[in-house]
Write a structure and sequence with these properties.
alpha/beta; Rossmann fold; 6-stranded parallel beta sheet; 4-stranded parallel beta sheet; 14 strands; globular; binds iron/sulfur cluster
Length: 422
């Protein structure tokens, strides 16, 4: 295995506009929507208010007759007034749930904003419930609160809770970190196998109980930019983080596989033989989007943390011009390779002061704004074309085979707007 893999990429020194005003970003509970689809034996129990229940249900579009793998233990007025013993209530809800649903093998207690929830020690509750239910069910806890987390940070918190549970194994192996749609994971696994990388695992696996090993021989390849805390917890367990951009678009995917190939001393010739068919197909599939997107100006509001890699892909491969790329927070370690590829002319902003940012949107008159649902309708009403950032998290967009689908997500609203203008 190569020593080229480094533990800590150097932070970028380019200027960043830091804003700490009012923000319009989803909280970390939203991550449950894709986490519960991925982890097929897990249940996510939000401990929160009716607002939390509404958020998760409407984000997921759940049918009321379905047996979903998430729910909310809603704190009632009695809990809020401190009359009921919230710990006893929580234990009762968990017991009822686990008795009714023997398919649940991992139960995540997810914390939220209300002060009564903050006062509840969910880590302690998980420990208490583990004494009763482990090994049949593993109970874990993390925070998805909007005070502490934005949108995709919920996934990072959930994955980080799994890291201390991973078995030790110092053998050379690749660990891909971050939720991927199953179809993408299968494609990636086939390519890693073709490259001859000895042992490849994914975190999360499709079942929460399948825990990949970690140790000194583990090379971590992040599939998502928002898994920084999980990556650092893995580094603390002896793993090494590979420097790579994210597998978005042809060039990002190529560089991502190249990083894995270098770390496992796969020859350039073999790497090319394995990935070139995918590269050629993906480049060809992107050709039709170039005339639709080249020269179009983009503005990213902060939301999913995918903004910087997306701006890189849309600029490098489709000729789009990003005016500003906003990100809820800038993780220099996880973003080093992406920042190095982003043109200096693009303004990077971190955090948000929504009114000031909306003024910059109006002033720069971009062709398309990527933003959360709450801002999309008002901007559309002003005649500004938008793309919902949440769609970019829910859709399979990584890898060679999905490059054109990713371009399509940006082309569609522009084509629709052009038709309306006829
Ligand atoms: S921001 Fe807080 S109160 Fe609102 S849905 Fe998220 S966790 Fe619940």
């Amino acid at each position: 295995m190569s020593a080229a893999a480094t533990a800590l990429p150097m932070p970028s020194t380019r200027p960043v506009l830091r804003e700490r005003g009012q923000r319009e970003v989803f909280c970390g509970l939203t991550s449950i929507v894709w986490l519960h689809r991925k982890l097929q034996d897990a249940f996510f129990l939000v401990v929160g208010s009716r607002t939390c229940a509404h958020l998760v249900q409407s984000a997921a579009g759940v049918m009321i007759f379905a047996e979903p793998r998430f729910g909310t233990a809603i704190l009632t007025d009695r809990d809020l007034a401190g009359i009921a013993d919230a710990n006893a209530e929580l234990d009762r809800v968990c017991r009822d749930l686990l008795a009714r649903r023997p398919d649940i093998k991992a139960l995540f207690l997810v914390g939220s904003c209300p002060s009564e929830v903050i006062k509840l020690d969910l880590a302690n509750a998980a420990e208490r419930l583990n004494r009763e239910f482990y090994p049949e069910v593993r109970v874990l806890s993390y925070s998805g609160s909007g005070i502490e987390t934005t949108f995709t940070q919920g996934e990072d918190n959930a994955l980080r809770t799994l890291v201390p549970l991973l078995p030790v194994d110092d053998a050379p192996q690749l660990l891909v970190v971050g939720c991927l749609a199953d179809v993408v994971e299968d494609q990636f696994r086939r390519l890693f196998e073709a490259l001859g990388i000895p042992s490849v695992h994914f975190l999360p696996a499709r079942r929460a109980r399948e825990l990949p090993p970690v140790g000194k021989g583990t090379r971590v390849l992040a599939a998502q930019p928002f898994v920084g805390e999980t990556a650092r917890a893995l580094i603390a367990r002896g793993a090494t983080l590979l420097e790579a951009p994210y597998p978005l678009g042809v060039e990002g995917t190529k560089a991502w596989f190249s990083a894995a190939a270098r770390a496992f001393e796969v020859s350039d010739a073999h790497l090319s033989a394995c990935i070139e068919p995918g590269v050629t197909r993906a480049r060809r599939s992107l050709e039709r989007y170039h005339p639709l997107l080249a020269g179009k100006r983009l503005f990213f509001m902060p939301d999913s943390q995918l903004e910087i890699p997306l701006a890189r892909f849309l600029g490098e491969e489709l000729g789009m011009e990003t005016v500003e790329v906003g990100t809820p927070y800038l993780d220099q370690q996880m973003m080093a390779c992406e920042l190095a590829r982003l043109p200096e002319a693009i303004r990077i902003s971190e955090g948000q002061d929504v009114e000031a940012q909306l003024d910059r949107v109006r002033e720069s008159a971009p062709d398309i704004v990527v933003c959360g649902l709450g801002l999309a309708n008002p901007l559309e009403a002003e005649g500004i074309t938008t793309k919902w950032s949440i769609e970019l998290v829910f859709s399979p967009i990584q890898g060679f085979e999905q490059a054109a689908d990713l371009a399509e997500l940006f082309a569609r609203p522009l084509v629709r707007r052009a038709r309306l203008m006829l």
